[in-house]
Amino acid sequence: MSNLMSWYQGRSLRERRLILVMLALLVVTIIWAGVVRPVRDGLASSRERYAGAIARLGEVQREVAQVKAIQRARPRGVEGPLVDAIRARADEAGFTLTSLEPDGNSVRIAIATARPGPLLSWIATLEADGLLIDASTITGNGDGTVSATMTLKGREA
User: Fold this and answer.
1) What is the C-alpha to C-alpha distance for residues 4 and 27, in angstroms, rounded to an integer?
2) DSSP secondary structure code for residue 130 in this structure
3) For the CA atoms of 95, 101, 104, 107, what is the dihedral angle to 10 degrees?
4) How buried is residue 150: exposed, middle or buried, by Cβ count under 10 Å (0-12/13-18/19+)?
5) Is the pTM of this model over 0.90?
6) DSSP strand E in the chain: where?
7) What is the pLDDT of residue 125?
8) Could you say which DSSP state residue 156 is in?
9) For residues 145, 147, 152 and 96, what is the CA-based torsion angle, rounded to 10 degrees?
10) Closest CA to 130 of 67, 75, 91, 89
11) For residue 6, which of 29, 60, 69, 136 sits 20 to 30 Å off, Cα-Cα?
12) How far is CA 75 from CA 10, 88, 100, 150, in A?
C-alpha cells in the first residue's frame, strides 16, 4: 500500500486529479452496473410477472364462473325408475311407445311412427332433463314419418 501511495505522490497535481476523477467514475460505473441496473431489471421483471398473474387470475375467474354456470344449469339425474320417467315423458310429448325394455342401466324404446321435427325436439328435451341417448336409429317410413329405436340412460350424478 505504501508503494501505491508513494507512486501517487510522485504524480503531478493534474495527474492526481485525473486519477481521482477516473476512480470516481469507476466507482459510479460499478455501482450502476452492479446495483442499479440489476435492481431496476428485477423490478421490471416483477411488474411483468405481476401483470401476467393478474391477467391469468382474471381468465381463471371467468372460467370458474362459466363452470359454475354450467353446473347450475346441469340437469339433475332422473328421480325414480328410469322406465317410468321415459314412459311419462313420451306420454307428455304424445308419442306411443311400441316397446319399452329395461336393459341394466339403460332402457331400449321403439316408436313406430312419429314426425321427425317433434321427435328430435323431444330427444333434445330428454337430454336437457337428464336422460341421455346412448344409441338411436331413425328410419323414414316413406309417408313423411319416421320410426325410431333408442337406448336411453340416466345422466350420472
Assistant:
1) 18
2) T
3) -10
4) buried
5) no
6) 97-103, 106-114, 131-140, 146-154
7) 86
8) P
9) 80
10) 75
11) 29
12) 95, 17, 23, 20
Cell representation of residue 85 = 320417467
Q: Residue 141, SS3?
A: coil
Please give the backbone phi and psi of residue 69, each rounded to the nearest 5 degrees, phi first. -65, -40
pLDDT at 51: 94
Confidence of residue 69 (pLDDT cuts 50, 70, 90): confident
> Among all chains, which residue has been given the C-alpha cell 505522490?
9
| pLDDT, position 77 | 62
> Residue 142 pLDDT > 60, yes or no?
yes
How much is the pLDDT for 157?
46
- Residue pair 150/135 in contact by the 8 Å Cβ criterion: yes
Distance CA 3, CA 103 (A): 103
Whole-number average pLDDT of the chain: 89
Report the relative pairing of strands 106-114 and 146-154 from DSSP bridges. antiparallel
Q: Is the pLDDT of residue 112 over 70?
A: yes
Query: How far is residue 45 from each of residues 21, 40, 49, 62, measured CA to CA in Å?
Result: 34, 9, 6, 26
According to the model, what pLDDT value does residue 48 have? 95
Long-range contact pairs involving 118-121 (C-beta distance under 8 Å, separation at least 24): 118/93, 118/94, 119/95, 119/146, 119/148
